[in-house]
Amino acid sequence: MINLILFGPPGSGKGTQALKLTERYGLLHISTGDLFRYELGNNTPLGVLARSYMEKGQLVPDEVTVGMLRNKVEANPDVNGYIFDGFPRTIPQAEALDALLTERNDSITKLIMLDVTEDEIVNRILERGKNSGRADDNDPAIIRNRFEVYLKETSPVYDFYAQSGKSVKVHGIGGIEEIFEKLCAEIDAVA
Ligand code: AMP
């Protein structure tokens, strides 16, 4: 099993790269943002709850997010591994993920962070917002808030996995293929 966390601020290219990595390594891509957007699109109680946080660029509470993630993992046991995208975003989420994998005699292989500056992010997300239909991609204030939340609550997750030598950074500005090859080199080094 290869279990990767694709890490980095919103708009750092995690979703784009995760899709390419899924193809190359045959892993299951789990994006908690996509899962919430699916629920939201179907107007489920979970979607309605998630919307109130997503609209403001805030995190959905850990217990809700972890429960949803657990269901997705448990519904797909027979895979070569997982690419977690947009999860874990807090230390309690990281602890819950480790506990979930440990139950399955498994663990995180590596956390790879796409390293991108804040200014680059705001520009990229506004650009994406022209087509993505995402309300949280169209307002610079909400985007800045998402970046603040990332710095405060999410970036400690990098250090959490660095303690066991699992965290690495890849420069996230450049061509999609160029960044993809750098990610593959990191994965091939441990796979
Ligand atoms: P993303 O598509 O990963 O940028 O996520 C969009 C929004 O969904 C975030 O701004 C949060 O409101 C919510 N979300 C996604 N993943 C998580 C998570 N792991 N924990 C809490 N909220 C999340």
Summarize the helix and strand pattern as letters: EHEHHHEHEHHHEH
- N-end to C-end Cα span: 9 Å
What ions, cofactors and ligands are bound? Answer: adenosine monophosphate
Tally of DSSP β-strands: 5
User: Percentage of helical residues?
Assistant: 55-70%
- Helix count, DSSP H or I runs of 4 or more residues: 9
What radius of gyration results from the CA coordinates?
A: 16 Å
Q: Uncertain spans, ≥5 residues at pLDDT below 50?
A: none
CATH architecture name: 3-Layer(aba) Sandwich
Structural class estimated from helices and strands: alpha/beta
How many structural domains does the protein architecture include? 1
**Major β-sheet annotation:** 5 strands, parallel
CATH topology: Rossmann fold
- Beta-strand percent range: 5-15%
User: Averaged pLDDT, please?
Assistant: 95
- CATH homologous superfamily label: P-loop containing nucleotide triphosphate hydrolases
Trace the largest sheet across and list its strands.
2-3-1-4-5
CATH class: Alpha Beta
Task: Give the CA-based shape.
Answer: globular
